[in-house]
Input
Amino acid sequence: MAEIVRMPKLSDTMTEGVVAEWHKKVGDNIESGELLAEIETDKATMEFESFQEGVLLHIGVEKGQTAPVDSILAILGEKGEDVAKLLKEEKASEAESVEKEDSKPAPTPKPIPAEVKPQPSVSAAPSVPTPTVSSNKSFPSLDSLNSLETKASPLAKKLAEERGINLKFVSGTGTDGRIVKRDIDNFQGSATIQGQESFVDEPVSQMRKVIAQRLAESKFSAPHFYLTVSINMDNSIEARKAINNAINPSKISFNDLVVKAAAVSLKDHPKVNASWYGDFIRYNEHVHIGVAVAVDEGLLVPVIRFTNEKSLTQIGQEVKLLAQKAKDKKLQPEEWEGNTFTISNLGMFGIDEFTAIVNPPDACILAIGGIQQVPVVKNGEIVPGNIMKVTLSCDHRVVDGAVGSAFLNSFKNYLENPVLLLGKQAI
Output
């Protein structure tokens, strides 16, 4: 009997998937556990193995197409079995679900208390009358521009239109300076008209859709506030240099020091290592730090688990491995889920400082700027110093200013005195 294979939910935030590749075609025999397709989620492209067995009778989502979770991905059954009835029943079931949803009564608006008078709505900008545009007016085409005050053969005009060439810039070699085909063929100037508008529309990827949705929810539902400190990195620079001279072949980066210092600081201040769940706040006793990684389609946040228990070299190796897997779209769910705190480092891109949007369900995210050599005052004298600015974005429902400040002071202290880290599984 024919069975439906549905679009799987391969991540906690997945609502729809894209078929990146089919490894089977209609008519192929499928064994349970055999690779059926590759599904692109909002975070990675993952292999999907069939839990059923039989002949592949129907493909419901072609390669490159998008479909909601639980929709028909494929149908397996016995060879020659008719799936038309099954598809018809599924379509009827979907229509019934939509009809039930549409028939639900609209929510009753809450009455306005008598003592509160409705205020007039205020727009973000003053209203400006929209000018009326006549429907018979349009921008002149390249063909019409080329026909003005230009002597050219019909073929030359046609070729110029196809190639985006402005005939004003073409010298004619025909009779009385007329532009002919050979003049277009031999034209060496710019093929485009100056000031011509152009654009490219690119479909939104699953990853970008989810990034937009989750960050918008975070920004507009979580009341953010921001705390910034400047950290003198002189001692961290010397410590990193000494460690890298002493170990081989693994080297540590400033990001490894930042991640380690944040992890230890979270153990010192567990109220920052927290999550908002509406009816309760979860204070995590373990430290799983998410490290934001830029990829072609957006941003992924692989997770370093039990970060405070790992050495600097372990952190560095794990960050590199997960970052490469993120760029190759090979991350697995257990590698991007479960973060309790997030770090976003743009220092390597030449950014002095910035603010980041809280990454749910975390209560905080730490934005790391670059190390800048600036004048600083030491012992009453102005001397060169290496300063790094960091900004902690906090969800005010969970973390108050004093709590966030205490965390930042600890973080600053560890980086300005990295010897304090060396006794905590540092190298």
